[in-house]
Amino acid sequence: MMKDFFIFIVALAAAVLVWKLLTKWLRAKGHRGIVVVPLGLVVSLLSFFLAAGLMLPDPQKKVEKAEAKAEKVEPEKVAATPEKPVAPPAPAEPAIKDKRLDQLTAADEQVIKDSIKKLQEDEIAEVSFVSPEFVKITYLRKSVWDDKHWVSSFMHDALRLVQKLPQASAPFKFKKVTFLVQTATVDKLGRKGHQLGMAVTYNTEDFNGANWGNMSAWNMADMASEVSFRRLGLESAVEYCKDEDNAKYANVFCRRVVSAVM
Q1: pLDDT score at 189
Q2: Which of 4, 25, 223, 247 sits a CA distance of 20 to 30 A from 42?
Q3: Please, are residues 241 and 249 in contact by the beta-carbon 8 Å criterion?
């Protein structure tokens, strides 16, 4: 750094000296400022760069000097600090959140299924993945005798389940969810069981931007993309739609019921 500064000062001094001598000589010859100043500046600049160039070290010599210095390293010192071989890191098992559904182990799948079941453990009997974007939930309604409220109770539960499904199944964003709504049965010998009453499918993208505080069970009935009925489920749905408010505010669902009856 100091050497470069010294070269600059010497080159500048040479330029100033040339300026003074040249301008003095030109004025002595009778030349005016219009000639003296430009010519003096040009020659002074040339003098500055010439002086600096003469004093700067030769780049080739500088490289050779550096190489010679590198060659002076003692072999013993190099040998005294050998490089330790670095073992390649073991491939990390990707976290569940980094996997696709079709890459999950059986244990991974069970973690997600259990998380969905915990949303409503008494009613959710089974969770199955149809595809990375489609889930089926087997849902049990325990009431046997109250047909009208069998549908209504499910729609209230669907409101909570669809709202919480993205968090429970994270990081998967299921685009489609089908509820297989079971109804409790008792046969002629008094034996209890369950039978599929209806299948209700939702396209979850339809709920993007939903104000869940204003959503109701009637909204859930009407927003189903598909509804199919079995005998017991259809009988309960008919009773549900006989209610004036249900027929009015869940009219899309009730029109489907009428079509199924016909």
Answers
A1: 76
A2: 4
A3: no
Q: ∠ CA(145), CA(148), CA(150), 5° rounding?
A: 70
- Give the tens place of pLDDT for each residue, 194-224: 889 999 999 999 999 889 999 999 999 999 9
Structure tokens at 230: 């079995």
Checking if the pLDDT of 179 tops 80, the result is yes
Angular region, 64: left φ>0, alpha ψ -120 to 50, beta rest = alpha
Instruction: Please name the residue ranges forming H helices in the chain.
Output: 2-28, 33-55, 59-71, 75-80, 106-117, 147-168, 217-222, 231-242, 244-249, 251-261
CA distance 51 to 32: 28
Phi, psi torsion values for 192, nearest 5 degrees = -85, 150
Assess whether pLDDT exceeds 70 at residue 36.
no
Q: Is 53 strand, coil or helix?
A: helix
Cα 60 versus chain centre, distance: 53
- Whether the upstream peptide bond of residue 171 has omega within 30° of 0, thus cis, is yes
- Give the chain's mean pLDDT: 78
Stronger pLDDT, 4 or 138, i.e. the higher one: 138
* Cβ neighbour number for residue 128 with a 10 Å cutoff: 13
Q: Is the dihedral of CA 215, 135, 111, 181 positive or negative?
A: positive
pLDDT for the residue numbered 107: 80
